[in-house]
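Feature request, filed as a ticket because there's no other form

It would be nice if the structure record came with a short human-readable summary line next to the C-alpha cells. Right now we just get the raw output. Example of a typical job, pasted below so the devs can see what we mean:
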Amino acid sequence: MPEVRRVAILDDYQHTAHRHAAWDSLPAGARLTHFHEHLGSPEEVIAALEPFDVVVAMRERTPFPAEVLDRLPNLRLLVTTGPANAVVDTAAAARNGIVVSGTRAAGLASTAELTWGLLHALTRSLPDEDRNLREGGAWQRTVGRDLHGARLGVIGLGGVGSRVARVGVAFGMDVVAWSAHLDTGHARALGVTPVSRRELLATSDVVTLHVRLSPRTTGLIGADELALMRPDALLVNTSRAPVVDEEALLAALRAGTLGGAALDVHFTEPLPADSPWRSAPRTVLTPHLGYVTTGAYETFYRDALGDVLAYAAGEPVRVLTP
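Raw output as currently delivered:
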C-alpha cells in the first residue's frame, strides 16, 4: 500500500481547513501541515513542499506547472479541490508518477450569490457610502441605479450564469444571454432572450461573465468589446481574470468610457500591494470570494480527505488525467 507520511494543506487563508474535515483520520503516523500564507513564486513552492508526499491545493491559488512538479521528487499525490484545475500540469504529474485527484464541484450557488452582492455594491455605491458614514461624512452622497427594467447581459449560461439570470428575471430585469454554444431552449425556459455577442455588449446596462477559462475564452472581452459597451455600462467578472484584457479594462475605466467594474478575480492573486487595481476608479474589488463559503469548503475538504484515504488504501479516486 502507498505510504502517507507528510501531508500539506495549502493556502488555508482563514485557518479553517481543520474544521471542515476529520483530518485526525489520516493514516497512523501521517504528519499534517497547514500553510496559511500563500507560497508565491515557483522557487518558494518547491522549497516549502520538497519534503511532502501529499499536497492538498485549494482551487487554483497555487499553480503546479511542470517546472514545479519536476522538482518535487517526494510528491506522490496532489489533490486539487474541484473536478478540474487549469494550473495543474497533469501530463507533467503523470510523467513524474504523481497521482492527481479532484473533488466534487462546489461554489456554483455561492458564486452566483456573490455576483449579485458585487452588482448591488456597484450600483448603489455601498462601499463608498459605508466608508463615508463611518467617517462622519455627508449624509447620502450618491444616487443609485435601478435594476428593475434595466438590461442584464449574461455571457455564459451554465451553472452559475443560469442562477444569476434567474435572479435578474425575478428583479424585473430584461435578461439577455450569449455564449459560443448557447442552448437557446434552456435560455428561453429561464425567461432569458438569446442575442448575439455584439447586441449583448452594445445594449446591456450590466454585463456579467460566467464562462470557463480556456484558449477560446481568454481575452474574450478586449478593447474592441469594451468599446461596444455603453459609457455608463457596468462589467462584473466572477469567472476568471484572463477572460478580460486587464490593460484594456483599466484604460476604459480611467478614460471614463465604461461606467464601472466589479471584480472578484485578478491576474495575480493575492493582489500585489502595488497593483494599479487598488486605485482604479469606479470599481468594487473582492479577493476571489466566489467559492469561499462554509458549504463549499465542507465539500472540498471532506472530498480531499477522502482522496487521501483512498490513495493510502491503494485505490485512488477522482483521478484527473492529461
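Something like this underneath would help us a lot:
The two ends are 24 Å apart (CA to CA).
The chain has a mean pLDDT of 97.
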